[in-house]
């Protein structure tokens, strides 16, 4: 014990640079009876560090003097915080000083004993040890025990001896171990076994809320015609305009707005426009009767631009953002009190100028403004029309630039004086009017079908789709959600770390240990119940238990014993530890020898023991199936870098596309429903016996030009989706820097070629059909239930609206043709179109199209997203940093009063959604890839390029053609009638271009804006030449094309500012998903395509001699 005071005095003598919090925090670990506290000597004199000791005997108090000028900062010992704070009392639970009256009345729970719940209990030892047989709880002393009996605490708070849960007895509902209320379906169930489902949303949730009688009477006195229903949220549509300072910083100068109540335009102009605007919004949070209401403020591109100005002003005013939904450094929504800011682009992913055509708003149009001219010097400018360069037409697309040039000539001809402020306000108000009109049209069309306002209830179009589906089309108890203890349940969970330890024990002892991957977990009956154990040696009756720190309540890792992880079914980490100890005692009581280890101890042993490290290097462990690893994206890439048609052979390049691929899959695909049955190393190795997800070892064939199975592999700094035929080839060849160094010829054995991964069963079945050989099924998540047409009602609803709103096709002219069109559509799709509604309605059609294409993605949403918290007290930050259930991803010091912290839930205990299902998402993309593969399979090596739902391929007279059609899932021609491609180029995925017979040139490069300025630096001709040079005339280093963008927006999330800076990007040929056969032109092959036989390998060896 002598070490403790000496360690404390050492810390007090050390400067800040030598003694950080992490060093100070080691003090309590030296003796669990001691708790260390550190208080800052600066206002507001708060605790900056507190050791997590549940019931300390002693408290070591330090004062920390921060660094100032030449003083680097120090820790000082403190005998009493009372004297330092000049207070009469100090509460060690809420860490605040109080005077006499304040302390007597302060409501802190820390004044009450945690056992007997009384304030007069007195000093307590480290752990309560006295047992009460009546309530099965432990107490600190005889006085503590007597107090809890005298105050009837014994009758109102008990602990279950079986499940270790502490609860208040309820005569109406007797305690049942592990039972509780499901947070999703609200039923009282066994939380370990409960299998829950996505729940429908009652329509009354979106119905107008009726006011209370008191409110109705109050409002009727003021206005006899007042409604008896609560006022709905008021919408505000707004737009920022900013000046550009000399260093490129955007300084907000103007906000224009309109509300949903009327068409009045509001203008907030000046350097304090943000302050004016927030005051305006705050005033709107009360209606005419002084009743509170929600204000929803809509900006277009809030996340990319306007939100930075809002956040900056909120920080200045010291107002916290109550809820934020981060997307990287951007935010698609944030709340401040009763005000919610949302991004219309999250619902309508298009430019504001596109609203005009999309919603048929012919009377409204986005104008032009010389943003580069809008500086502090020109703020009050009145004079001739600014020069063309100030409008930066190079930033526009070609068509928009042409439109600008016409407009500019007309304006210049008028010779009217140009008033910058007046033009700015007119431009801004025009944008707001267009924004409001487009959003109103979208809301109107959506609400007429769905029955609710999407921008009021949701923050994205995907969430709106999901909400509508749950209201109107969700089948009851069919689509599963992940249980709180995970898909595997609470009883039979294992990890890769536990398998490592068990195999190490097996290696050391020479015994055969039965475990999850070796015969399954062994079950030992103990009285009326039974336990599954991680490992069991039947010969020696030895039980092996690997305690995952989270699942078993490790004292070292989870020092806050009151924490309740999501996976614990409502139990604290303390109760989890008690359960674990109880289980071990019972197993030993049955005569078993028990060997146990904690997860953190095993990690430490691995780092410190060389023998373990060497053992694990050669260990082939199949990790537990993670369903998210079976969720792959679309198939995208090039099979050929360059191709020019042979005119003499009448060759053509065709470009086809699947009509509404994902809606087609949603309507006609077969999906897994219900909860999966999980099998580890199943005896039945027939893949046709299962439907769901499987982790398998599978060997691809050596000669399949278009492989079936996707495979994630790290190439450079990121994981890419490849379709290889050999695992070893893709690992070795992708390490070679230059694409011409790579070889697709495969010298590897079947074992080296073998892929191990998790895939949906339909894709595995297709792979086997194409020559893949299944080696071993390691784990299966099989769904006894499946449903075809699961989302047909949803798709049919919006498909009908989309089809009717598009009007009749061009070939339909007579009544007979109209009837034929309606009949054929019903015959093909099972949808009867209403002839009275077949009228062109751009807004309605756009809404329906969004609802069809944005539906399925919500099921695959990653629920464990980052959250953001603003801390005004040091302990708030330290609590997050010290909490093992959270991982801090970023810390931003906004000012001297506020720190902004981004954090995520720990990956072992993530948030679990109530409206997501990873299996639906995985099957959607799987079935979509198989739909595309139907065409790839027919075309073989004639394929040039593919991208999720489209294919470019060569065709000559007499060769197989892909049949085209007009219905869902049919292939359609992406080119104009009679036209075809004569030259094609591609430098990789999402990077291609072509020229057609009729002279049309198309060039698309992901990550590069090919506006007028961009297209001068990077275009079809430049990319074409780059490809030809790299393949035909390679250099030691790849050629690069620099693309300069002088108007790149850079957001500073710490300073809450946005600047315009010059950005220079480097473009080069990146082709690493397949291997180029440069010796025979521009064609490529999958990794491991050509298998070398024994003679080939011998010849290669001779060449190397």
Automatic annotation (TrEMBL):
Swiss-Prot/TrEMBL catalytic activity: DNA(n) + a 2'-deoxyribonucleoside 5'-triphosphate = DNA(n+1) + diphosphate
Assigned keywords, A-Z: DNA replication, DNA-binding, DNA-directed DNA polymerase, Nucleotidyltransferase, Transferase
E.C. designation(s): 2.7.7.7
UniProt key word Transferase: yes
Gene3D superfamilies linked: Helix hairpin bin, Palm domain of DNA polymerase, Ribonuclease H-like superfamily/Ribonuclease H, VSR Endonuclease
Domain DNA-directed DNA polymerase family B mitochondria/virus stretches: 291-473, 628-935
One Pfam assignment: DNA_pol_B_2
GO biological process: DNA repair; DNA replication
UniProt GO MF annotations: DNA binding; DNA-directed DNA polymerase activity; nucleotide binding
Family: Belongs to the DNA polymerase type-B family.
Entries under PANTHER family matching the protein: DNA POLYMERASE (PTHR33568), DNA-DIRECTED DNA POLYMERASE (PTHR33568:SF3)
Name of the protein described by the UniProt record: DNA-directed DNA polymerase
């Amino acid at each position: 014990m002598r070490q403790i005071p000496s360690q404390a005095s050492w810390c007090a003598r050390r400067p800040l640079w030598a003694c950080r919090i992490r060093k100070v925090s080691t003090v309590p670990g030296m003796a669990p009876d001691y708790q260390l506290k550190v208080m800052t000597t600066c206002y507001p004199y708060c605790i900056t560090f507190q050791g997590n000791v549940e019931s300390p005997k002693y408290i070591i108090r330090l004062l920390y003097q921060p660094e100032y000028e030449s003083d680097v900062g120090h820790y000082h010992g403190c005998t009493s915080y009372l004297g330092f704070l000049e207070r009469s009392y100090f509460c060690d639970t809420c860490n605040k000083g109080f005077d006499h009256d304040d302390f007597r009345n302060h409501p802190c729970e820390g004044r009450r004993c945690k056992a007997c719940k009384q304030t007069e209990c007195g000093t307590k030892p480290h752990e309560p040890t006295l047992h009460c047989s009546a309530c099965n709880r432990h107490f600190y002393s005889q006085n503590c025990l007597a107090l809890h009996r005298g105050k009837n605490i014994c009758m109102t708070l008990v602990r279950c001896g079986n499940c270790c849960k502490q609860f208040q007895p309820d005569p109406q509902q007797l305690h049942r171990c592990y039972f509780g209320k499901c947070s999703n379906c609200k039923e009282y169930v066994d939380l370990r076994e409960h299998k829950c489902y996505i729940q429908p949303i009652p329509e009354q949730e979106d119905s107008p809320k009726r006011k209370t009688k008191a409110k109705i009477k109050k409002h009727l006195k003021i206005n006899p015609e007042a409604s008896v229903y609560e006022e709905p949220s008021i919408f505000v549509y707004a737009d920022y305009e900013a000046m550009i300072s000399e260093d490129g910083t955007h300084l907000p100068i103007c906000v224009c707005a309109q509300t949903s109540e009327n068409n009045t335009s509001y203008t907030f102009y000046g350097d304090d426009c943000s302050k004016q605007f927030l005051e305006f919004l705050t005033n709107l949070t009360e209606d005419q009767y002084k009743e509170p209401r929600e204000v929803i403020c809509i900006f277009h591109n809030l996340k990319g631009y306007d939100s930075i100005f809002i956040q900056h002003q909120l920080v200045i005013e010291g107002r916290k953002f109550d809820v934020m939904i981060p997307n990287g450094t951007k935010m698609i929504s944030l709340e401040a009190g009763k005000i919610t800011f949302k991004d219309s682009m999250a619902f309508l992913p298009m430019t504001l100028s596109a609203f005009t055509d999309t919603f048929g708003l012919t009377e409204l149009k986005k104008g032009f403004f010389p943003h580069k001219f809008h500086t502090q010097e020109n703020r009050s400018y009145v004079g001739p029309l600014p020069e063309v360069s100030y409008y930066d037409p190079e930033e526009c697309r070609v068509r928009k630039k042409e439109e600008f040039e016409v407009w500019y000539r007309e304006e210049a001809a008028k010779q009217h004086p140009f008033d910058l402020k007046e033009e700015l306000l007119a431009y801004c108000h025009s944008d707001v009017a267009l924004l409001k009109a487009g959003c109103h049209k979208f809301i109107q069309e959506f609400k007429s079908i769905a029955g609710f306002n999407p921008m009021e209830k949701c923050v994205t179009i995907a969430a709106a789709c999901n909400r509508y589906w749950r209201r109107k089309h969700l089948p009851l108890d069919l689509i599963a959600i992940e249980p709180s203890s995970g898909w595997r349940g609470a009883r039979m969970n294992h990890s890769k770390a536990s398998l490592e330890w068990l195999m190490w024990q097996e290696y050391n002892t020479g015994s055969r240990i039965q475990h999850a991957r070796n015969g399954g977990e062994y079950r030992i009956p103990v009285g009326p119940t039974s336990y599954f154990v991680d490992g069991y040696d039947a010969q020696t009756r030895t039980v092996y238990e690997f305690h995952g720190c989270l699942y078993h309540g490790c004292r070292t890792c989870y020092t806050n014993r009151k924490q309740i992880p999501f996976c614990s079914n409502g139990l604290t980490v303390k109760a989890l530890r008690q359960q674990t100890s109880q289980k071990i005692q019972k197993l030993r009581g049955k005569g078993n020898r028990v060997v146990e280890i904690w997860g953190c101890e095993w990690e430490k042993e691995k780092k410190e023991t060389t023998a373990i490290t060497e053992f694990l290097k050669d260990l082939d462990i199949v990790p537990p199936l993670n369903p998210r690893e079976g969720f792959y994206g679309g198939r995208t890439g090039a099979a050929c870098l360059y191709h020019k048609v042979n005119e003499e052979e009448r060759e053509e390049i065709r470009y086809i596309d699947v009509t509404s691929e994902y809606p087609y899959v949603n309507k006609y695909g077969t999906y897994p429903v219900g909860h999966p049955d999980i099998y580890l190393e199943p005896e039945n190795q027939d893949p046709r016996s299962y439907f769901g997800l499987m982790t398998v070892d599978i060997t691809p064939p050596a000669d399949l030009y278009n492989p079936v199975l996707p495979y994630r592999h790290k190439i450079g700094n990121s994981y890419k989706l490849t379709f290889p035929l050999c695992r070893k080839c893709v690992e070795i060849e992708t390490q070679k820097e230059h694409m011409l160094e790579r070889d697709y010829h495969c010298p590897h054995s079947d074992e080296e070629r073998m892929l191990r991964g998790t895939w949906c069963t339909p894709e595995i079945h297709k792979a086997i059909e194409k020559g893949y050989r299944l080696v071993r099924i390691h784990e299966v998540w099989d769904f006894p239930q499946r449903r075809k047409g699961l989302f047909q009602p949803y798709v049919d609803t919006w498909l009908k609206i989309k089809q009717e709103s598009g009007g009749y096709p061009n070939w339909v002219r007579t009544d007979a043709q109209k009837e034929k069109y309606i009949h054929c559509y019903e015959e093909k799709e099972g949808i009867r179109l209403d002839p009275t509604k077949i009228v062109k309605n751009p807004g309605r059609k756009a809404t329906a199209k969004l609802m069809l294409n944005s539906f399925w993605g919500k099921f695959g949403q990653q629920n464990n997203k980052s959250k953001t918290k603003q801390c005004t007290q040091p302990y708030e930050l330290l609590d997050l940093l010290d909490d093992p259930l959270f991982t801090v991803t970023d810390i931003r010091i906004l000012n001297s009063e506020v720190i902004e912290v981004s954090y995520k839930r720990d990956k072992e205990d993530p948030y679990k959604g109530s409206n997501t299902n990873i299996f639906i998402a995985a099957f959607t993309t799987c079935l979509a890839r198989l739909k595309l593969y139907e065409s790839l399979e027919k075309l073989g090596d004639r394929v040039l390029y593919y991208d999720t739902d489209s294919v470019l391929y060569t065709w000559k007279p007499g060769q197989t053609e892909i049949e085209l059609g007009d219905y869902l899932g049919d292939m359609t021609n992406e080119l104009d009638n009679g036209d075809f491609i004569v030259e094609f180029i591609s430098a990789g995925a999402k990077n291609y271009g072509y020229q057609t017979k009729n002279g049309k040139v198309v060039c698309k490069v992901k990550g590069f804006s090919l506006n007028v300025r961009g297209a001068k630096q990077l275009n079809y001709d430049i990319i074409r030449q780059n490809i030809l040079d790299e393949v035909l005339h390679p250099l030691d280093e790849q050629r690069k094309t620099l693309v300069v963008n002088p108007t790149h927006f850079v957001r500073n999330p710490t300073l809450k500012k946005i600047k315009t800076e010059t950005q220079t990007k480097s473009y080069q040929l990146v082709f690493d998903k397949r291997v180029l056969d440069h010796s025979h032109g521009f064609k490529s092959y999958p990794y491991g395509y050509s298998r070398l036989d024994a003679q080939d390998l011998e010849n290669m060896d001779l060449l190397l001699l």
